[in-house]
Amino acid sequence: MKKLTCILVALLIVLSLGTAVNAKTLKLAMDADPVSLDPHVQLSGGMLQYSHMVFDPLVRWSKEMTFEPRLAEKWERIDENTVRFYLRKGVVFHSGNPFTARDIVWTVDRLKRSQDFKGLFEPFVGAAVIDDHTVDLITKKPYPLLLNMATYIFAMDSVFYTGTDDQGQPKDAIVKTGYSFANMNESGTGKYRVTERQQGVKNVFTAFADYWDTASPGNVDTIIFTPIKKDATRVAALLSGDVDFIMPVPPQDYDRIAGTDGVKLTTMPGSRVITFQLNQKRRDEFKNPKVRQAIVYAINNEGIAEKIMKGKATAAAQQAPEGYLGYVEALKPRYDVAKAQELMKEAGYPDGFECTMIAPNNRYVNDDKIAEAAVSMLGRINIKVNLKTMPKAQYWDQFDAQTADIQMIGWHPDTEDSANYTEFLLMCPNKETGYGQYNSGNYCNPKVDEIILACQSETDRDKRAAMLQEVERILYNDAAFAPLHWQHLSWAGKDNVNILPIVNVMNFPYFGDLVID
Amino acid sequence: MMDHWQRFKASDLFYDFKRDKVAIVSFAVFVLLFVCAFSAPLIAPYNPYDPANIDIMSSEIPPVWMAGGMDDYILGTDAQGRDLLSTMIYGMRISIVIGLCAVLLQAVIGIVIGLIAGYYGGKLDGFFMRLADVQLSFSYLMVAIFVSAVLQAAVGVGRFAEIAVPFLIIVIGLAQWPQYARTVRASVLAEKKKEYVEAARVTGFNSHRIMWRHILPNCMSPILVLSTIQVANAVMSEAALSFLGLGMPVTRPSLGSLINAGFEYIFSGSWWITAFPGLLLVILVLAVNLLGDFLRDVLNPKLYKG
Fold first, then answer.
1. Is A235 in CB contact (< 8 Å) with chain B?
2. What's the CA angle centered on A287, arms A283 and A291, to 5 degrees?
3. Under 8 Å between Cβ of A327 and A418
4. Whole-number Å distance between alpha carbons of A404 and A388
5. pLDDT of A267-279, one tens digit each?
């Protein structure tokens, strides 16, 4: 009798699994895999894409650029510096620990310690527990972007990450390169757990059985994520059916994918701006605004957008694209070689000079080719550039160490707001506040810093727009950096993969909601 | 000088060469490519290293006989807007220099070590062969990454571009000498038991003379075969290193890195960026291989006067 019950129960479980979970596996190929399992190690597209798979934010951007409740069910403004979040109940971490308001406080504290994130969280005093499922986010001054920032608060398991590991290191240490507990282990509330990881080779994400979001239509329970660095190989893998979904899609293959049966291409204008920073600390020449202007005039960024990017990019003259508060329509790309040569003469360098440049070769779409093209363009105004390109795993260390005079960086505003570009790329570098964290050009203009800091507490939209536009004009006239273009976003997958509903302008595909027919 | 020429004309080598059509053709092709490569600044339509000749707006122009082709660019242009023919000629120069010099370096080290190890045997043999084992157990990429990291820290990104060619020759040369050493040693072991060596020893020749004048010529055929393979290998290694950012700067592409760069475009229609440099590389390596075959047959004392 007991045996029979056992069999019946087993049968029932099998049947219920078979009907309820229509399990699908997604074979995913991207250009690179996450550098770490610790979401606070690096502020980059790749790490945030990973965070959306394994962790959950308080709120997230919807496709229409509104806020969608995730771990916070609702929120309300208590006073001008405080917003209260009411958290979802019954959420558990992958470790089994229950999710509470204390995890949010712990996560915000850790964000404020992270080299990469502390700039973003500078306006915050911190978070305060009200009760188990209520938490206040408190800012130092009235802050217009509080909810934008809540999209970055991916709850980490405070119990799991507290204490010391078997090597005697604190588990919550944030280590950029090398070993740390958080780099090797994860416990989030997200839909997927990392079940296998061989960095640079293969990553397997498996659906978490106790995931809270049962309303999501997503039906993918295993994601096999293979990094494929070479563009042509990645496309070939999709076309041959080895993978179901690829990103990014190299522009030279758009036509081919669009014209192939069984796969489809999805593109969207993006807001990631690609720029060159001219290091004024390394080169005295770059301190002269005329030299910087000459470089901007010498680079044919419209040509790069048209030819190398095959029209899937918009040539830029400023940081923010159209639709952002700081966008100034009057600022246009300035390609003019004769003018550039004239400026070099005026600056006192008619014979030019020699300098160095580094660029990644697998981070941005066609990054190495863009750099190579820029080198020949600068050659025309007698600036001889020695270029070295390298994979992004090595690139960022070199970028941080500022080993070359001209360095490439692309930036997507994490707050979806104009001020963010300047805060990270062009404000005077300051290790304590985190401002200018990626300003390898060492451009420093107190006026710009002043306006940006002032607009951080300006809640009037029109006034704020005027301030941000002022900043863009100053940067344009100063030629604070050499702008290239805004990259378009692209994804491609098999016909049965419903890509469009899960992608957005931030380029964070919400794989948890992915439906495979 | 005249005397030497007369001696050469009367030699067996020249005699055989005149009768071997394949050898004549491959020699002609090799000389042609060699001369083209080293007179690149004179014969190439453009100088691909001069930024004034590179315009991004004229990138990916197809060869002249295709629709959209332009008379200015006979074989079309690459993704950067460089004239493909000129870039290939300049690139071939780099490939030939690196290929031949690296193989020469490998051969010199490998032959000397192989001869000594094989001829003297014993502890010396053990030492050199274990050294070869160690060298073979880690790939040339590791050697290259290590050496380039040290060099770049020492000279900086800017200077590194200037020393890239000698650096690549040394790295590829040092990494692959064991292939030669082992081949030569194996041949020496087989040869040194033979009667002619005994005879030479009895006659009272010293070891030096026996090694270089008697044994080495008899080991020539595997060395020549290996060399032709190694030239092709060295060219490929250079392309791999350049791709990793450890070799030639992207602005000075070799044939290998040109093929590599064009690979991304082969599916999207611009096949010529890879196809023409690829064809040139095949012709170059084939000519070297055929010449190697010919030399092996001629220089092999066992077939000699056979």
1. yes
2. 90
3. yes
4. 9
5. 888 889 999 999 9
Q: Give the Cα separation of A335 and A297 in Å (integer).
A: 5
CA angle B33, B34, B35 (to 5 degrees): 95
Of A366, A289, A268, A328, give the one whose Cα is nearest residue A468.
Answer: A328
What ipTM describes this predicted complex?
A: 0.70
Smallest Cβ distance to A388: which of B55, B80, B157? Answer: B157
The architecture that CATH gives domain B20-47+61-299 is Orthogonal Bundle (1.10)
| Cis check: omega of the bond before A248, within 30 degrees of 0 | yes
Q: Which of residues 360-389 of A touch B (CB under 8 A)?
A: 361, 368-369, 371-373, 375-380, 386-389
What pLDDT, in 10s, does the model give residues A302-327? 999 998 888 889 999 999 888 788 99
- In angstroms, how far is CA B94 from the centroid of its own chain? 10
> Based on C-alpha coordinates, what's the Rg of chain B?
23
* d(C-alpha B35, C-alpha B44), whole Å: 12
What's this model's pTM, rounded to 2 decimal places? 0.71
Which sequence spans correspond to the domains of chain B? 20-47+61-299
Across the interface, of B80, B161, B265, the residue whose CB is closest to A376 is: B80
The tens digit of pLDDT for each residue in A82-108 reads 999 999 999 999 999 999 999 999 999
* Residue B36 pLDDT > 90: yes
Residue B239 banded pLDDT, cuts 50, 70, 90: confident
- Cα A357 to Cα A395, A399, A405, A461: the distances in Å are 12, 10, 6, 39
Extract the tokens encoding A121: 């969280």
Q: Is B306 on the interface with A (CB under 8 A)?
A: no
Decide: residue A168, CB within 10 A, 0-12 exposed, 13-18 middle, 19+ buried.
exposed
Chain A hits for B264, Cβ within 8 Å: 230-232, 250, 252
Q: Which amino acid is at B106?
A: Q
Question: What torsion, rounded to 10 degrees, do the Cα atoms A177, A180, A185, A190 define?
Answer: -60
Put simply, the answer to whether B250 touches A387 (Cβ < 8 Å) is yes
Cβ atoms B227, B103 nearer than 8 A: yes
pLDDT at residue number B303? 63
pLDDT tens column, B87-146: 999 999 998 899 899 999 999 999 999 999 999 989 999 999 999 999 888 777 787 778
Residue A362 CA, chain-centre distance (Å), reads 15
Check the CA dihedral B48-B53-B54-B56 and report its sign: negative
Q: Which two tokens stand for residue A84?
A: 């209260």
Q: Of the candidates A65, A129, A138, which has an alpha carbon nearest to the alpha carbon of residue A102?
A: A129
Residue range B296-304: average pLDDT?
70
Give φ, ψ of A493 to 5 degrees: -155, 175
H/E element, B144: helix B140-160
Q: In this structure, what is the dihedral angle of CA atoms A325, A330, A331, A335, given to the nearest 10 degrees?
A: 150
B-chain residues near A231 (CB < 8 A): 264
Over pLDDT 70: what percentage of chain A? 96
- Nearest Cα of chain B lies from the Cα of A216 at a distance, in angstroms, of 38
* Helical (H) or strand (E) element with A77: strand A72-79
